[in-house]
Design brief:
By secondary structure, the protein is α/β, with parallel strands linked by helices. It has a single domain, classed as P-loop containing nucleotide triphosphate hydrolases (Rossmann fold). It is built from nine helices and ten strands. A six-stranded mixed β-sheet has the order 6-7-8-3-9-10, with helices on both faces. A four-stranded antiparallel β-sheet has the order 2-1-4-5, covered by helices on one side. Strand 7, helix 6 and strand 8 form a beta-alpha-beta unit. The termini are far apart. The relative contact order is 0.18. Bound molecules: adenosine-5'-triphosphate and magnesium ion. This is High-affinity branched-chain amino acid ABC transporter ATP-binding protein.
Length: 244
């Protein structure tokens, strides 16, 4: 039985095996529109694999993924996108020979917008996250902290109900993290989406997320409010150490 909020994505006891390696075991989590959910855990814990399942890039080998109550087992990645689920990638995937504006615009065109409408839309989105001054820079010349912001802008063109961000602050300075934190914090209100945030920077995660889901070795260690997670001894032992 499912008790689905009409606008939520959820995994139900999802498992993923790669040959003999069990990358995800029995993980259940949900993300509602309007919330920011943190997904944390050590390297190799299965965070990206879980996001791949939630976006159609990886089929679960067990359990299922539900989008707004619909079973997605026959969906392709494109179907997930059309149903309002957008993502960014851990490594960033911009078209390096194109300008920032064109990178964002091309997503609009692929959704069926005419070039001019797509450009207008792209300008609006770049402005909404404070990077319109980068519009005419070649994407390949950006420092990767700016690349991350452009990747978020590209995802927002789809007007997603859900946006899944895979380590958007990796390698950023404290100041850049603060800037990114402000962008992510504005997403539910300004763009109406639920956000799943994978991030190793704990001050970013703790400052942004209403709930945090912790994975370790492909299994759920715990899920709870930031303060509960911060004080959970199993999380401290497996991941946080005494840093937070
Ligand atoms: N396509 C694949 N084929 C085989 N093994 C894979 C594949 N993708 C991931 N894995 C393995 O699955 C496990 C989980 O990987 P995953 O990338 O999901 O972890 P992660 O939590 O995102 O780690 P990180 O913090 O380093 O990004 C790891 O052991 C990884 O080596
Ligand atoms: Mg990862």
């Amino acid at each position: 039985m499912t008790t689905d909020n009409p606008t939520q994505i959820r995994t139900e006891a999802v498992s993923v095996s790669f040959g003999g390696l069990r990358a995800i075991s029995n993980v259940s989590l949900s993300l509602a529109k309007g919330e920011i959910l943190g997904l944390i855990g050590p390297n190799g814990a299965g965070k990206t694999t879980l996001v791949n399942c939630l976006t159609g890039f990886q089929r679960p080998t067990g359990g299922r993924v539900l989008v707004n109550g619909h079973d997605t087992s026959k969906w392709h990645a494109r179907t997930f996108r059309m149903r309002g689920i957008a993502r960014t990638f851990q490594g960033g995937r911009l078209f390096k020979e194109m300008s920032v504006l064109e990178n964002v615009e091309v997503t609009g065109v692929s959704l069926g917008l005419r070039r001019r409408a797509a450009a207008l839309e792209a300008h609006g989105i770049l402005a909404s996250i404070g990077i319109d001054h980068l519009a005419h820079r070649l994407a390949g010349t950006l420092p990767y902290t700016d690349e991350r912001r452009v990747a978020i802008a590209r995802a927002l063109v789809m007007k997603p109900d859900f946006l899944l961000l895979d380590e958007p602050a990796a390698g950023m300075s404290d100041h850049e993290c603060e800037d990114l934190t402000n962008i992510v914090r504005s997403l539910p209100d300004n763009h109406g989406c639920g956000v799943l945030l994978i991030e190793h920077n704990m001050s970013v995660v703790m400052g942004l997320c209403g709930r945090i889901h912790v994975l370790d070795g492909g299994r759920t260690l715990t899920e709870g409010a930031p303060d509960d997670v911060r004080n959970d001894t199993s999380v401290v032992d497996a991941y946080l150490g005494s840093d937070v």
